[in-house]
Amino acid sequence: MPRLYQNVRPFLSTLPWNDVRNADTCAWLIAGCLESQTCSIPAWVSGRISKAQVAQSREVQARRFLNNPKVDPFETYAPLVFQALQHWGEHLLVLALDTSVLFGKFCLIRFAVLFRGRALPLHQELNNHRLKTVGLRERLKVGIRAKARHSSTIPNTLLGFGSK
Known about the structure:
Elements: H1 2-12, H2 20-36, H3 41-45, H4 55-66, H5 73-85, E1 94-102, E2 106-115, E3 118-127, H6 136-149
Antiparallel strand pairs: 1-2, 2-3
Organism: Deinococcus sp. VB142
InterPro entries: RNaseH-like_sf
Protein name: Transposase DDE domain-containing protein
């Protein structure tokens, strides 16, 4: 896992961290998740190189990081995904719009990139209407708001708002 960590860590160095140790912990968690292919903190931290002698100490450290109020997942996730997308190359990039009705009252609209059968969410909004179908105008409005919210990280052409 140290090699995987070494490949993940440079991607995290450009993100706005309040402490470099948070970037290190995040890189170990990502590497552990990728290697273990499971959503289990004990599996994620099993290969972590640490001064901690007991595995439980590494788990506590991981849980402390995940519950740290100074680490904002929204500030780190989107730039990390878009940084990975910059290396996409000539491969076909599929952008999906997904809607879900929650509690028969709200419509959740999500933009995601499809990759290897998985959806990597880029932006989501909750609207106060009961219909699962979203019209073209509403999709464009959500796309424009997504672009405005992530203007520093989303490439112009990703959401189809490039200049010609």
